[in-house]
Amino acid sequence: MSALGTTAELDRAIVLALDNRPLDGAALTAVLSAAASGAASGAAPGTGTATPNEAFGRLLAGARAVRRRNFNTDLHLCAIVNAKSGGCTEDCAFCAQSGHHKTANPRHAFLDPGQIEQAALAARARGASRFGIVTSGLALNADDFARLLLAVRLVRGTGLYADVSVGLLGAERLAWLVDAGLSGVHHNLETARSFFPQICTTHSYDEDVEAVRLALAAGLFVCCGGIFGLGESWDERAELGQTLLELGVANVPVNFLVPIPGTRLEHRPVLSQAEALGILALLRLMLPRANLRVCGGRSAVFGSAAPAPEGEGMRELFRSGISGLMIGDYLTLKGSPAEADLALARELGLTPTPTPNPGQGR
Ligand code: SF4
User: Fold this and answer.
1) Model confidence over 295-306: pLDDT tens digits?
2) Hey, which of 85, 89, 94, 98 would you mutate to test ligand 1's pocket, going by the most ligand atoms within 8 Å of its Cβ?
3) Which of 84, 85, 88 to mutate to test ligand 1, by most ligand atoms within 8 A of the CB atom?
4) How far away, in angstroms, is 72 Cα from ligand 1 center?
5) Pick the CATH number of 73-353 from 3.90.1100.10, 1.10.10.1400, 3.50.50.60, 3.20.20.70
6) Which residues of 230-255 are buried (b: 16+ CB within 10 A; e: fewer)?
7) Core-most of 12, 209, 246, 314, by most CB within 10 Å?
């Protein structure tokens, strides 16, 4: 296809997304081509005047327009606590908590529910509206599940929505949690089905998809996304986007790999800002209505919310197609100070906003 033809297809893709319609094959190809060319050129967004930077600049502007159309200036905030860390039976190639890896990640048993409540109160003070209780492992034992039920009640008592990310949950456990006040379930697919066997061999992609389907069927707030920079191709990124679209997931966390010493992916490079912005634009156009939340790896890729020029990466991130942000610490990594993130977001005209539950609007 000629450069002109590609530009026309890219513009058509942006129009489709602005109308909240799915991208067809030609439109998706144009988006992937613009994202990949921008990433390959390492283009600083907004500075290019010629191919491929022009296409990349167009793509980023389109993603920003779709965000504005569907989310206005809203920036949805959430926070998590790592309630049980390390010793996981699974072999996810990127994960510091896998028992298959030798990392310096601290291990701890399930936290006392009172400590989880304190963490929720701190997150509320920083402006979060949702609080996720996250544990390592494929499933909790009976004692830890009892602690989780109490923790969910305590978090709900703080006024925050209580979410969990605790591996695979059957229908019965899900019902117990809903009874305790559970609002949402977070379960990542991590990557495309076709790439998954290179990342995890100890459970199947179908088990993860089923966990997401069960949570959606229960009418819960469901957060389901992945981690990028594992060595997946652009087509595999689009494949994950398509799976999320077909599942009908409304909240998509986007994580970027931070290569942790001792893990299988310890030698992979951190993604460039241009590549990460291209991924966010791809997802924004494929999933125009989804709340795209940037979570782990944000600081490694985009830096801190320091004054420019040091904080220029974070400025580009806030001007991208995202509509949500995890604040505070991540699972195994320290986060950046929430106050600085929020001050910068406000400076750029964004409005930290509570995320409603299903049935309460977007
Ligand atoms: S990502 Fe989750 S399931 Fe995979 S190793 Fe880490 S804690 Fe275990």
Assistant:
1) 999 999 998 877
2) 98
3) 88
4) 34
5) 3.20.20.70
6) bebebebbbbbbbbbbeeebbbbbbb
7) 314
